[in-house]
Amino acid sequence: xxxxxxxxxxxxxxxxxxxxxxxxxxxxxxxxxxxxxxxxxxxxxxxxxxxxxxxxxxxxxxxxxxxxxxxxxxxxxxxxxxxxxxxxxxxxxxxxxxxxxxxxxxxxxxxxxxxxxxxxxxxxxxxxxxxxxxxxxxxxxxxxxxxxxxxxxxxxxxxxxxxxxxxxxxxxxxxxxxxxxxxxxxxxxxx
Length: 191
Ligand SMILES: CC(C)(COP(=O)(O)OP(=O)(O)OC[C@H]1O[C@@H](n2cnc3c(N)ncnc32)[C@H](O)[C@@H]1OP(=O)(O)O)[C@@H](O)C(=O)NCCC(=O)NCCS
Known about the structure:
191 residues, alpha/beta, seven-stranded mixed β-sheet, 29% strand, binds coenzyme A
């Protein structure tokens, strides 16, 4: 128990412990607040504890966010009911983001290399998630650690996003695959 606590402090720093306690207790209370008051208080609270956040952060009730100090969001970000976000591996979102109900955005995972050590005992894995500008995640979308979602993308309801999504794509399914393009992107010279 103490070993895990020290490892956590070593990895995340002392400040993160306080932010984690805040988000568990104050965030846990605020997520139950209904109506416009709930939207206002959650907006103010998460703008204070996120690594950075632009104006017009809208967080609906029952959204559960952990490791907020590793999450950066732009302007006009809306996160709908029942969504879970784990920022441990780092999460960056741009401006104008719509996150539908019951999405899971998790920048961590369990180690699975060994079959003799239980997965719960193996080192936790981390992978930064990057979401561009003007992105819509439909209801029940899962975004795996390490994934980058380009500008202008739509992730269809129920998608499981396991690999990078190029800009202006509509992706859907399990695992998420290209459904259509919203516009053609000219290849940038030198890339
Ligand atoms: C992705 C989405 C925007 C596409 O809408 P659309 O442009 O009207 O697309 P269509 O219904 O014409 O479907 C186009 C293709 O995508 C497929 N598709 C649509 N939604 C899909 C989904 N959720 N998962 C997998 N495939 C899907 C269709 O089967 C169709 O495939 P086909 O061409 O082989 O027949 C829409 O289906 C969607 O998921 N919206 C999210 C709604 C939502 O979650 N709302 C609440 C949160 S705000």
